[in-house]
């Protein structure tokens, strides 16, 4: 069963300038829980007292979701996370030769001892704690190092191994394929009788985070990390609404309440200060808006002509907007929405002319403005008749 891990409160808060107050964090966690997110990664308690306190409060809320904290591969970090009462700790440590030599000044064997000691420590303190170990920058690290540390981590008690594409390096269909990577890692572990859950954490530096996450899923990954608005370091990670929508619409899963996503996105956008572009997939204001004349005409006959996702899955309606691209078919269709089915062809053309006028100024006419245009045109027509 696939699980979604939301990291808005951890990775998302690593977006430059983004900070969620404690009560906002709790509110976001509640919305994520209502949507049915499986794991909520709430933060890294050793970063600040504020984060520590919010992790603790969220952990004590009896959410359905598994509540997790992030920790370096240090006993102090893990102890702090355990004290917060979380169900899950994500421990990370990079094992690339380069990082071992230049940053940690350790060899692989020493790093493995540090990682496994911390995992064993966590399990000795709380045997029920779920441990994820992430070899940070997994995909650019030597594969043999990743395999060796993963084997050791699982033998020490890790339940989940996460493959992190920390720099958004992978490209689908190439020799940097996430599908191939996950398949190979699973093979190495399974053939040794080790069956941890495999998670995937994809950054979006090249715009492939979602595609890589789906590749991972197809190769058997069981946990996908995501965040609201894809918030995270640099270009962020997989967008929560997009991954949930695609898995629901295209991969037959039915695990989440998608109709609650919009409210969550508006809330996170307003409290992070990160705006939602109109053309943002799934959630953007125009994600289900038809505009050009031919599109509106075809979509009015059968929406699937210009839609491959059903807005109703999100509890939304498709809409039509009018602008300089509009044709008479769009006008007629839009008029039918506001109950103006009897307007004469001559006045319909006047409405079209006015809509195009407004559109050429770079604005769109929403259905709420249309009645006012119609009213004006009718009044103007009456006035002209009288003065003849
Ligand atoms: C980080 C890096 C990380 C860790 C992911 C993980 C990444 O911010 O510490 O611990 O699973 O992208 O590698 O987000
Ligand atoms: Cu990350």
Secondary structure: elements and pairs:
Blueprint: E1 3-6, H1 22-35, E2 39-41, H2 49-59, E3 66-72, H3 75-83, E4 88-92, H4 97-104, H5 108-125, E5 130-134, H6 143-156, E6 160-165, H7 178-190, E7 197-202, H8 209-218, E8 223-226, H9 240-251, H10 261-272, E9 289-290, H11 293-301, E10 319-320, H12 328-337, H13 345-359, H14 370-386
Parallel strand pairs: 1-2, 1-8, 2-3, 3-4, 4-5, 5-6, 6-7, 7-8, 9-10
Helix pairs in contact: 1-2, 1-10, 3-5, 5-6, 7-8, 11-12, 13-14
The structure holds 3-hydroxy-3-carboxy-adipic acid and copper (II) ion.
Short description, anyone?
The protein has 388 residues and is of the alpha/beta class.
Tell me the CATH architecture of the largest domain: Alpha-Beta Barrel
Question: Radius of gyration over alpha carbons?
Answer: 26 Å
Fourth CATH level, the homologous superfamily of the largest domain: Aldolase class I
Q: Kindly report how far apart the N and C termini lie.
A: 74 Å
Number of helices: 14
The chain-level structural class is: alpha/beta
Oligomer: single chain
How many domains comprise the coordinates?
2
């Amino acid at each position: 069963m696939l699980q979604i891990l939301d990291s808005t409160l951890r990775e998302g808060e690593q977006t430059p300038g983004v900070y969620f107050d404690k009560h906002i964090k709790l509110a976001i966690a509640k919305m994520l829980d209502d949507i049915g997110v499986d794991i909520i990664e709430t933060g890294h308690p050793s970063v600040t007292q504020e984060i520590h306190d919010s992790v603790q409060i969220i952990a004590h809320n009896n959410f359905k979701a598994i509540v997790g904290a992030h920790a370096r591969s240090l006993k102090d970090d893990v102890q702090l996370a355990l004290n917060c009462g979380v169900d899950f700790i994500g421990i990370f440590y990079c094992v690339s030769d380069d990082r071992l030599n230049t940053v940690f000044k350790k060899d692989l064997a020493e790093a493995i001892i540090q990682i496994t000691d911390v995992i064993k420590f966590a399990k000795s303190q709380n045997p029920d704690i779920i441990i994820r170990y992430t070899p940070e920058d997994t995909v650019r690290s030597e594969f043999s190092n990743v395999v060796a540390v993963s084997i050791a981590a699982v033998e020490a008690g890790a339940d989940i191994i996460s493959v992190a594409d920390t720099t958004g390096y992978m490209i689908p269909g190439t020799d940097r394929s996430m599908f191939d990577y996950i398949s190979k890692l699973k093979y190495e572990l399974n053939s040794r009788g080790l069956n941890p859950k495999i998670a995937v954490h994809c950054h979006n530096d090249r715009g492939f985070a979602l595609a890589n996450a789906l590749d991972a899923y197809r190769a058997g990954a069981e946990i996908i990390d995501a965040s609201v608005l894809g918030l995270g370091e640099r270009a962020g990670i997989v967008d929560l609404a997009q991954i949930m929508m695609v898995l629901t619409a295209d991969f037959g899963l039915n695990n989440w309440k998608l109709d609650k996503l919009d409210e969550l996105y508006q809330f996170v956008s307003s409290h992070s200060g990160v705006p939602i572009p109109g053309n943002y997939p799934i959630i953007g204001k125009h994600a289900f808006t038809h505009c050009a004349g031919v599109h509106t005409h075809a979509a009015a006959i059968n929406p699937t002509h210009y839609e491959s996702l059903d807005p109703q899955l999100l509890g939304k309606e498709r809409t039509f907007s009018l602008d300089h691209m509009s044709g008479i078919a769009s006008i007629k269709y839009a008029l039918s929405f506001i109950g103006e089915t009897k307007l004469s062809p001559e006045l319909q053309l006047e409405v079209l002319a006015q809509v195009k006028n407004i559109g050429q100024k770079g604005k769109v006419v929403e259905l709420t403005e249309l009645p006012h245009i119609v009213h004006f045109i009718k009044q103007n027509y009456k006035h002209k008749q009288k003065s003849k």
